[in-house]
Amino acid sequence: MAVRGAVPEVIWARPERTGRGPRPAYSRDDIAAAAVRIADARGLDAVSMRHVAAELGCGTMSLYNYVPRKEDLYELMMDAVAAEHVLWEPGGDWRAELMRVAHQARSLMRRHPWMPRLMSPVYGFSPHTLRYLEHCLACLDPLEAPYGTKLELIAMVNGVVTTYVRNELDTAERVRALPWSQDEETAVRGAYLARQVASGKYPRLAEAFAQDPGPVDMEAVFERALGRVLDAYSPH
C-alpha cells in the first residue's frame, strides 16, 4: 500500500550525514555489511530491520534514520557485493573479457546465494554497480555497436548467469531437503524415465537419449550458453 505523501527517492541522492550534529554511530557500509552477513548465513528472508539492528547493536527505530525503507537496505546490500568485483584493464578481446565478467559474476552469486533474488534494474544505479557497468562497457570498446546494443548484451550475459546460478542453487536446496541420498533419487528417477522412453510413446526423446545417453556436462552447457549469446552480437 502506498504511503500518503510519499515521493520517489534514491538513497544515493540523500546525504549520508548532514554537516551538523554528532557523527552518526554507523555508516552505510556498516549497515550493508551487517545485512550481507545475515543474508549469507541465514538467507535473504532473515534480513529485516530488526535483525540488522540487532547485528549492529542498535535500536530498530534508530536504523530507519539511516535506511528509510527495506528496499534501500537491499540496495545497500547489492552495492556492497558489487564492490567485490575485481576490475582489470581490458585486453582488447571483447568476447574473452565478457566471458571473464560472466565467470566472476557467477562466483560472486555463489558466494552470496541470495543475490539472484535481488538481481533487478531497480538496484542498478548504486555507485559500485555503476562502476561495474562502466567496466563492462570498457571491455566492449572493441565491439563496433551502439551503446544501447552493448548495454543489451551486458544485460543478456547477466541474465544467463543469474538464471544458471539460480537453477544451481535451487537444485542444491532441493537435494539438501531430500530424506535420502541424491544417488538414490537419481537412480529412481532415471529408472522411471528409461521405462517411459522405452514405452514407444516418445520416439523423439528415445532417439535423443540414444544419441547422447551420457551425463550432461553443466560447465560445458554454461560455456555454450554464454558463447551463443556473444555470437548473436558478433559482427558478421
Summarize the helices and strands and which ones pair or pack:
Layout: H1 28-42, H2 49-56, H3 60-63, H4 70-82, H5 94-111, H6 115-118, H7 127-139, H8 147-177, H9 182-198, H10 203-211, H11 218-233
Helix pairs in contact: 1-2, 1-4, 4-7, 5-8, 5-11, 8-11
Distance between the termini: 50 Å
- The proportion of residues forming helix, as a percent range, comes to 55-70%
Described by strand count, sense and barrel closure, the largest sheet is: none
Poorly predicted residue ranges = 1-5
Structural class: mainly alpha
Count of helical segments?
11
Number of strands: 0
CATH class of the largest domain: Mainly Alpha
**Number of folding domains?**
2
N-to-C order of helices and strands: HHHHHHHHHHH
Shape descriptor:
flat
Examine the coordinates and then state which fold CATH places here, giving the name of the CATH topology of the largest domain.
Tetracycline Repressor, domain 2
CATH homologous superfamily of the largest domain - what is it? Tetracycline Repressor, domain 2
Estimate what percentage of residues fall within beta strands: under 5%
The CATH architecture designation of the largest domain is Orthogonal Bundle
What's the Cα radius of gyration?
A: 23 Å
Mean pLDDT: 88
Can you tell me about this structure?
The chain has 236 residues and is an all-alpha fold. Helix content is 63%, strand content 0%. The chain folds into two domains: 11-82, Homeodomain-like (Arc Repressor Mutant, subunit A, Orthogonal Bundle); 94-233, Orthogonal Bundle (Tetracycline Repressor, domain 2). The N and C termini lie far apart (50 Å).
